[in-house]
C-alpha cells in the first residue's frame, strides 16, 4: 500500500459519513489514508437526530495540515465538509502552499437535517475560495442547483447544463449526482470533462437516502486518482463502489441507513 491519499473533512459521530466514511473507502481501495478534521458533527438522538456542529479551531486545522503534509508527500486531496468561513480561509490558504495533482471537492453545503440556506456565508466562501482550487467537483442535486444558479433540475439535460455552468466556475471535471432526486427509475450522474458529457446511470436502489454515499463517492474518486487512474475511470469505479455500498447498507437506529464502503 504505497499510494497515499489525503482528506480534509468533518467527523460524523455515527460513523456513516464524513471522514470516517472517507478513510474506510481509502482503505478498501488500497491507499494509505491521511486525514485532517475540520469540524465535529454529532447528531442528537434526543432531538430528532438534529445536527450538533462544533468547528475545530482554525489554528488546530492549520497544525493538522502542517503535520500531514510535512510527514507525507501528498498530491491528491479530497475536501469534504468545512462548515465555517474561518475554516474555509485556513484550508484555502493551506491548499495554496503546494501544488496538487488533484483536489477533489465534495461541496457539502448542508447535511441531512439542516435547513437549506442555513449557512449562506459559508456557501459563498466555499464558492469563492475553494471551488477555483478544485480539479474535480461532485455536487449532489441540491448543491448542483445552488452552484449552477438553476431553479430546478428535472431531466438529464438539466444535469448536463448544470455541469457545464459549474465547470465555468473553475473545476475541470464536474460530476453532478442526480441521486434519488431526479424523477425516474434510474439514479443518473453526469460526468462533464469540459468537452464531453457522459451519462452514468443505473437502477435506483429504493428512494431512501443513505448516509455517507456522497462522501464515499468522492473519497473513492480520490483514492483511484491517488493510484494514477484517469478521472473518468475513477468516477466509474466510485459509482460501482457506492452502488454496492448502498445495496449492502447498514440499518441503524437513526432515520437513515449508512453506506458500507466495499471495494468493487
Ligand atoms: O454527508 C455529508 C456530510 C459530510 N461530512 C460530515 C457530515 C455530513 C452529513 O451529515 O456530518 C462531517
Structure description:
- With 264 residues, the protein is an alpha/beta fold.
- It has a single domain, classed as 3-Layer(aba) Sandwich (UDP-N-acetylmuramoyl-L-alanine:D-glutamate ligase).
- The protein has 8 helices and 11 strands.
- The strands form 2 sheets. A 9-stranded mixed sheet has the order 3-2-1-4-5-6-7-8-9, sandwiched between helices.
- A hairpin with a 4-residue loop joins strand 8 and strand 9.
- Helix 1 (18-28) packs across helix 7 (213-226).
- The longest helix has 17 residues, at 231-247.
- The chain starts with a strand and ends in a 6-residue tail after the last strand.
- The model has no long low-confidence stretch (mean pLDDT 94).
- 3-hydroxy-5-(hydroxymethyl)-2-methylisonicotinaldehyde binds at residues 9-12, 17-18, 41, 80-81, 108, 111-112, 214-215.
Distinctive features:
alpha/beta, two-stranded parallel sheet, binds 3-hydroxy-5-(hydroxymethyl)-2-methylisonicotinaldehyde, 264 residues, UDP-N-acetylmuramoyl-L-alanine:D-glutamate ligase, 8 helices, single chain
Amino acid at each position: 500500500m504505497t499510494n497515499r491519499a489525503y482528506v480534509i473533512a468533518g467527523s460524523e459521530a455515527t460513523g456513516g459519513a464524513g471522514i470516517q466514511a472517507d478513510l474506510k473507502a481509502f482503505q478498501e481501495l488500497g491507499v494509505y489514508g491521511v486525514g485532517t478534521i475540520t469540524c465535529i458533527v454529532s447528531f442528537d438522538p434526543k432531538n430528532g437526530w438534529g445536527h450538533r456542529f462544533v468547528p475545530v479551531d482554525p489554528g488546530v486545522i492549520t497544525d493538522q495540515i502542517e503535520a500531514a503534509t510535512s510527514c507525507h508527500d501528498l498530491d491528491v486531496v479530497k475536501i469534504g465538509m468545512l462548515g465555517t468561513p474561518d475554516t474555509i480561509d485556513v484550508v484555502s490558504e493551506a491548499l495554496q502552499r503546494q501544488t496538487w495533482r488533484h483536489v477533489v471537492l465534495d461541496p457539502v453545503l448542508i447535511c441531512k437535517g439542516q435547513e437549506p440556506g442555513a449557512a449562506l456565508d459559508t456557501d459563498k466562501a466555499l464558492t469563492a475560495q475553494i471551488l477555483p482550487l478544485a480539479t474535480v467537483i461532485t455536487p449532489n442535486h441540491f448543491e448542483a442547483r445552488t452552484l449552477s444558479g438553476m431553479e430546478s433540475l428535472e431531466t438529464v439535460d438539466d444535469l448536463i447544463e448544470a455541469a457545464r455552468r459549474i465547470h465555468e466556475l473553475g473545476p475541470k471535471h464536474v460530476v453532478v449526482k442526480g441521486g434519488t432526486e431526479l424523477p425516474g427509475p434510474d439514479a443518473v450522474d453526469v460526468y462533464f470533462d469540459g468537452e464531453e458529457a457522459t451519462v452514468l446511470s443505473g437502477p435506483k436502489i429504493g428512494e431512501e437516502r443513505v448516509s455517507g454515499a456522497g462522501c464515499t463517492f468522492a473519497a473513492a474518486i480520490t483514492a483511484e486518482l491517488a493510484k494514477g487512474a484517469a478521472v473518468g475511470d475513477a468516477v466509474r469505479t466510485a459509482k460501482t463502489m457506492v452502488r454496492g455500498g448502498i445495496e449492502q447498507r447498514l440499518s441503524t437506529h437513526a432515520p437513515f441507513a449508512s453506506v458500507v464502503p466495499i471495494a468493487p
